[in-house]
Specification:
By secondary structure, this protein is an alpha+beta fold. It has ten helices and ten strands. It has a six-stranded antiparallel sheet, covered by helices on one side. A four-stranded antiparallel sheet has the order 3-8-5-6, with no helix packed on it.
Length: 282
């Protein structure tokens, strides 16, 4: 009996990503087929063999594979152990369609830094609430893919743009609770979304999503110290839910919101006790 594949698939609320697909296959072989999106593939275990435009290719765990839209390909495990993969199906607008021919000729990209960026993008897409981070990471991934396909893998020559960085910070300060997508910010500021991420990070030493998270956590701290429950605070400051608040609160503050709020109560109790001692000793 064939082993049942381990599959997870979802469509995130991030413009430019049509689908996220994680799978572990042992004996499945894809027939010839096409996609209407760019296929960005990481293989985490095993090895995959596939044909693209009548040429055979192999995918190992240390490379990135980019398959162009509307070009037939197949695929299957190179060994009986199978393979584990993670795939992002990117909207055709994420990579210039004029570069399809280059992707057919060179679908395998040996770029460890790019692979790490894609890995972090998958992490950001794992749960709801981190869409700004995912969009920021996607912008830099798409930029790097474009460089590779144009045979310009050297780093982007970046011109520091303090003005646009400060304009973006003002916009984030205004909307950090409600939230704003990277695409909306780019439209408002009349700038490319990748340029926004680079300009902000260069000027302030952190990415836009990190800045927004910090602002939300700061507001959450004040509300928790006012005695509001964490479940109420989470939605009030812009987090998706309480678990989303807890994850980022621990990362920034070093402890969870519940423990942080209880510490407030302990200080108050100690203060009352101290006051009572003073009263008795007077």
């Amino acid at each position: 009996m064939a082993a049942r594949p381990d599959i997870t698939a979802w469509r995130p609320s991030v413009a430019g990503i049509e689908e996220v697909f994680h799978a572990h296959f042992t004996d499945h072989t894809y027939p010839m087929h096409t996609h209407d999106a760019w296929t960005l593939l990481l293989v985490d275990e095993g090895m995959v063999r596939y044909d693209l435009d009548r040429h055979e290719h192999g995918v190992l765990t240390d490379v990135v594979t980019l398959l162009p839209p509307h070009v037939p390909h197949n695929g299957g495990a190179a060994t009986s152990a199978g393979f584990r993969k993670r795939v992002l199906y990117l909207d055709v607008a994420q990579v210039d369609e004029e570069l399809v021919g280059m992707a057919v000729d060179r679908p395998v990209l040996r770029d460890p830094a790019l692979r790490r960026r894609i890995d972090r993008l998958h992490t950001a897409l794992a749960g709801p609430g981190d869409e700004l981070e995912a969009a920021s990471r996607l912008a830099l991934v798409a930029e790097r893919l474009d460089q590779h396909l144009r045979s310009r893998p050297e780093p982007v020559r970046y011109v520091h743009d303090r003005r646009i960085a400060h304009r973006l910070r003002d916009l984030l300060d205004e909307l950090f609770v409600e939230g704003i997508t990277l695409q909306e910010a780019a439209l408002r500021l009349h700038a490319h979304h990748a340029h926004l991420v680079r300009a902000f990070s260069r000027e302030f030493g952190m990415a836009p999503h990190q800045y927004v998270t910090g602002r939300r956590v700061d507001l959450a701290r004040r509300m928790l110290l006012q005695g509001l429950p964490a479940s109420e605070v989470a939605s009030a400051v812009g987090f998706y839910d309480q678990s989303h608040l807890t994850r980022h609160f621990k990362r920034v503050v070093g402890t969870g919101p519940g423990h942080y709020a209880r510490a407030r109560g302990q200080v108050r109790a100690q203060g009352l006790s101290f006051g009572s001692c003073r009263a008795r000793g007077a």
